[in-house]
Design brief:
516 residues; mainly beta; Immunoglobulin-like; five-stranded mixed beta sheet; 12% helix; globular; disordered N terminus
Length: 516
């Protein structure tokens, strides 16, 4: 016999005891002792999580005549999610808001999919309620993997659903307006896409819709190949901008940037070009900023002459002597702090004659973010120097933010096309093991050396902080190809992108099922 059945069978004596206590108190105090009054007074929310705990005894009830409210006396609730194990006064007239979510694993990753009503078919739909409502969420397992759903800010958690079509229900009151995250708490599932918003109150809905600006640079935002030309003079102007940007769903961060985006602009010059760099620091900046380009032969890569105070501007000129793909970054002390806040980018010095033609070029950089609050916290996030010095980032990101190359700017191409990824690591600390799941790099210009013969048929390539690489490959099969650092725990901290390839199936190269 399971614990739930045992609790059910023991419930009758408890109810009779409570009824007798009620009757005695009612008679003694001259209260209404009718059955209806008793039912109105003894209102209990069943605690399913406690009922499912092995080796537990049922909670005891006590009734206070003055309050006409039944409460639970049970020390076990201190270690259980309160909403599923703790009783609070419930307004029987409060609206019951019901939602059904079904788990799914597909091309979009792991998700919750709405079932019925206004959320039917929506992926990770916004769930809404008003303060005072009672909310009931049914979680249905639609993929066979183990899942749950939790709203930690409201102390709500479902039981796990562990088989296809298994389901569980959680019911809870909501009192406080706000925007709360719901997600699957199993390791990696939230990061794989199982997260949505629970919005309580009209004002909260407005807050949910008003987000900080995106700082993400589109990976296709880069100058096209220069073609065959003679060396010339190139003028590059950039502005150091500090702004509050969108880090993740419901989380923002103060970024320090070149031109308000992460990474900074993709700079493209030719071997032998004379390049003027002009750096302005926005008037509303709080910090001095600078620029060090690894392509520069000269003191500090330019940083010694570009320590620019807010509202000022400085410049320098260099000649591009070495072809290759190079990182640039702010080099104002504390240098690692400026880099970790988003101040990095790439400069390409094309060799004479340029690079071989491809159908698509993409600009991708990996970075780390160090916040005081743990990964997944909502609201404005503060920088943590302690975690920076310990080399313990809360976030790893492509192009500046969580979901940058999945939700905002997925890479896109077609079967039969060739792609080139200019990939760099801003860091400031972690080495990347860059990998595209389901693809093999046809050519890798190791350490971004464009004058050395490229490596061929490479699965994963190492890129150090402050380093870069160039990877090229042809697309043979349609599908979704994930960009990752093969230190794969970092994907659970936001480091993932996707290359979406469309076109006809190539059954000779890949197909589901046995040999045809």
């Amino acid at each position: 016999m399971n614990t739930h059945s045992m609790l059910h069978k023991k419930r009758l004596p408890v109810v009779w005891i409570v009824a007798l206590v009620w009757l005695v108190l009612a008679i003694a105090k001259g209260l209404d002792a009718t059955p209806l009054a008793f039912l109105e007074a003894v209102t209990v929310v069943a605690p399913p999580s406690v009922a499912s705990m092995p080796g537990t005894e049922p909670a005891t009830l006590s009734v206070t005549a003055e309050s006409h409210v039944a409460t639970v006396q049970d020390d076990r609730l201190a270690s259980v999610i309160p909403v599923v194990g703790q009783v609070a006064p419930v307004n029987m007239a409060a609206p019951l808001i019901q939602y059904t979510l079904r788990t799914n694993i597909g091309h979009e990753g792991m998700t919750f999919v709405g079932v019925g009503g206004a959320i039917d078919g929506l992926i990770n739909p916004n769930l809404t309620a008003q303060p005072g409502d009672i909310v009931e969420i049914t979680l249905v397992n639609g993929d066979g993997a183990e899942h749950d759903l939790m709203l930690p800010d409201l102390n709500v958690m479902t039981e796990h659903v562990t088989g296809l079509e298994a389901q569980t229900v959680v019911t809870f009151p909501v009192d406080q307006a706000g925007v709360y995250a719901y997600f699957c708490s199993l390791p990696g599932h939230r990061q794989a896409g199982m997260e949505g918003k629970f919005i309580v109150g009209a004002a909260a809905a407005e807050i949910a819709e008003s987000t900080a600006p995106s700082i993400v640079r589109d990976p296709t935002d880069l100058q096209p190949p220069l073609g065959v030309r003679e060396p010339t003079t190139v003028h590059i102007a950039m502005t150091a901008v500090e702004l509050e940007g969108q880090l993740a769903n419901d989380a923002t961060l103060t970024y320090w940037t070149f031109d308000s985006q992460v990474p900074g602009p993709f700079i493209r010059v030719r071997l032998g070009d004379t390049v003027e760099i002009k750096l302005r620091n926005a008037a509303d900046s709080r910090m001095v900023h600078s620029i060090d380009l690894h392509a520069v032969t000269g003191p500090g890569g330019g940083a010694t002459v570009t320590q620019v105070a807010p509202g000022e501007e400085k410049s320098f000129t260099f000649q591009a002597l070495n072809p290759g793909l190079y990182v640039y970054h702010c080099a104002t002390p504390m240098v690692a702090h400026h880099i970790a806040s988003g101040m990095y980018g790439l400069i390409l010095v094309e060799p004479e004659g340029g690079l071989p033609p491809v159908d698509h070029e993409f600009y991708v950089m990996q970075g780390e973010l160090y916040t005081q609050a743990p990964y997944g916290a909502t609201g404005p996030q503060a920088f943590s120097e302690e975690k920076l010095l310990a080399e313990a980032p809360e976030y790893y990101v492509f192009n500046g933010a969580v979901g940058a190359l999945i939700e905002q700017y997925p890479l896109q191409a077609k079967v039969g096309e060739t792609v080139r990824i200019f990939f760099g690591v801003g860091g400031p600390n972690a080495i990347s093991s860059f990998h595209v799941i389901g693809e093999i790099f046809d050519r890798v210009y190791d350490q971004a050396s464009l004058t050395s013969p490229p490596l061929t048929n490479v699965q994963t390539t190492l890129v150090p902080p402050g380093g870069a690489t160039v990877a090229e490959f042809k697309l043979e099969v349609p599908g979704h190809y994930m960009l990752v650092d093969h230190a794969l725990t970092r994907a659970a901290r936001g480091l993932a992108g996707v290359l979406v390839v469309e076109g006809e199936e190539n059954l000779t190269v890949f197909h589901e099922g046995p040999i045809q």
